[in-house]
Write a sequence for this structure.
């Protein structure tokens, strides 16, 4: 009977893996990489190993592992998109295979997990280090059960977790502290717990190595004072306690059931209606309640709460909606370690509901309804995301690059519009277009680099940048968000003839769940340049301010 059950689970795993793989391949084919993806690739391609390891992490905000993996792939000489998507696909497939064939999750869970929006679209198609974060968390969960007997591989998995992202450092620290405190609670003695760790020399040495590695990585990624992200969070609309509350009672709901957040705003910047906050809080509380029931029975409440406490302290400092999948990552780890202690079954939930006066039949209906709602919502989000990615360009950069190549404009000068007083933060499509060329095509990008340095210039540096652009002379093309923006640039640089001829309008739609945010840009030029390009006079049209 057990062999038949295992065979059925194996067949189910093969079917799920095959279907999700087909979807992943399709998604990779139709997706246009956006700034974050292009930025990482161009850094991997152009930056020195020294800068990737020791300089850029202070401005990129995460450890250099993702850049190093891409740099290794770049050495194969494959085209930009194939290199980027190839690395992403391989890691995603490893994650999928671990979930389906190595994890202790139930057969139902193995079907439901890949349906999650963050698994099936956000961390499957968008090539960023978050899929590494999930992989590292799964490996840590895999080795957690035998951490005392085989501490070396457990320590390596946690170091790997630290290397994936700043959230990974907080997560790894929370896992270890939660484990130690949990042991103290169960043994009712800190002294006994400490003594057991000291006696297990390999475990003790592993913890020391992990602490040293985490400290070194933290030192490596501590943001510089002139980093864009450090200055951006100064515009936050909520206090730290408020964001801490949202981290616990908004993010869980946003992972699986609600879609209240805008991808274009950080959680520190976005203001949600009270009704949305209450709705998300109620749903999040139900999620936490289910998790509490699982962990309480297994006497692992500390192991459940402390890792997320560490994570939430960091998310309360800086987080965007595409980071919300950290909760899914955390949940996968907790459920794996819980399953290793005792199988998670419906009977435990029904017994709790019975105590609350709910019949087993009604309890089962509630559980099935919750699972069905999760499936419907996440399939809807994934369906809309893939539909929009097919129908609309995710980012305008590919269209810009193809247009430049089509008209053989390599000898022309291109200026990338900047943001406000930050001459090192450029309009969308600039870095993304650079990824399709061997070098930087915009003469005003900082130090001639093809990627954004994220260095915020001070007043003196700003003036110096403006003078350098003035000295360069009039550009042939300006990449900007709108004609109005180009007029402002012309005024700043003292250009007499405003660039009103729109040579190219490139469309982009930032997709997140069932939403999309317009990120159109345009290349403007003079009337003479337009006539030279198309062989006809430019006809003035009315363009919206993007």
């Amino acid at each position: 009977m057990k062999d038949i059950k295992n065979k059925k689970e194996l067949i189910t795993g093969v079917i799920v893996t095959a279907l999700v793989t087909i979807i992943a391949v399709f998604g990779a084919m139709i997706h246009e990489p956006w700034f974050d993806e292009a930025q990482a690739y161009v850094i991997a391609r152009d930056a020195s190993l020294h800068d990737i390891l020791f300089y850029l992490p202070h401005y990129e905000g995460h450890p250099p592992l993702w850049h190093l993996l891409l740099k290794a792939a770049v050495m194969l000489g494959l085209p930009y998109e194939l290199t980027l998507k190839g690395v992403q696909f391989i890691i995603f497939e490893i994650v999928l295979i671990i979930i389906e064939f190595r994890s202790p999750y139930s057969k139902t869970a193995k079907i439901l997990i890949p349906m999650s929006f963050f698994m099936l679209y956000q961390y499957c198609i968008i090539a960023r280090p978050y899929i590494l974060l999930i992989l590292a968390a799964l490996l840590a969960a895999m080795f957690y059960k035998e951490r005392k007997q085989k501490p070396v591989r457990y320590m390596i998995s946690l170091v790997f977790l630290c290397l994936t992202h700043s959230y990974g450092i907080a997560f790894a620290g929370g896992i270890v502290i939660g484990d130690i405190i949990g042991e103290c609670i169960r043994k009712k003695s800190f002294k006994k717990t400490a003594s057991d760790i000291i006696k297990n020399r390999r475990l003790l040495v592993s913890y020391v190595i992990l602490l040293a590695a985490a400290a070194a990585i933290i030192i490596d990624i501590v943001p510089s004072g002139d980093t864009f992200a450090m200055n951006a969070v100064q515009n936050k609309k909520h206090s730290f306690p408020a964001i801490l509350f949202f981290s616990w009672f908004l993010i869980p709901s946003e992972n699986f059931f609600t879609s209240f957040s805008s991808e274009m705003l950080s959680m520190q910047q976005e203001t949600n209606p009270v009704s949305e906050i209450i709705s998300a809080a109620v749903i999040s509380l139900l999620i936490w309640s289910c998790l509490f029931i699982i962990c309480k029975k297994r006497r692992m409440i500390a192991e459940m709460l402390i890792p997320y406490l560490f994570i939430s302290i960091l998310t309360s400092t800086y987080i965007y909606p595409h980071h919300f999948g950290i909760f899914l990552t955390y949940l996968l780890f907790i459920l794996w370690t819980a399953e290793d202690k005792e199988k998670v079954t419906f009977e435990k939930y029904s017994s709790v509901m019975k105590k609350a006066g709910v019949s087993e039949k009604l309890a089962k209906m509630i559980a099935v309804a919750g699972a069905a709602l999760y499936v419907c919502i996440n399939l809807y989000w994934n369906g809309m995301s893939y539909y929009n990615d097919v129908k609309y360009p995710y980012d305008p950069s590919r269209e810009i690059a193809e247009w430049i190549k089509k008209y053989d404009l390599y000898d022309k000068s291109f200026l990338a519009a900047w943001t406000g007083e930050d001459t090192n933060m450029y309009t969308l499509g600039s870095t993304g277009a650079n990824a399709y060329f061997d070098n930087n095509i915009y003469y005003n990008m900082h130090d001639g680099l093809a990627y954004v340095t994220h260095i915020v210039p001070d007043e003196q540096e700003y003036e110096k940048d403006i003078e350098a652009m003035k000295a360069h002379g009039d550009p042939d093309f300006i990449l900007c968000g709108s004609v109005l923006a180009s007029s402002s640039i012309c005024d700043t640089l003292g250009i007499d003839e405003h660039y009103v001829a729109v040579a190219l309008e490139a469309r982009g739609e930032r997709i997140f769940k069932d939403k999309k945010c317009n990120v159109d840009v345009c290349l403007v030029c003079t009337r003479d340049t337009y006539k030279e390009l198309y062989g006809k006079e430019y006809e003035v049209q009315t363009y919206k301010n993007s």
Q: What stands out?
A: Strands lie at 414-416, 418-419, 422-426, 477-480, 501-506, 509-512, 515-518, 521-525. The radius of gyration is 26 Å.
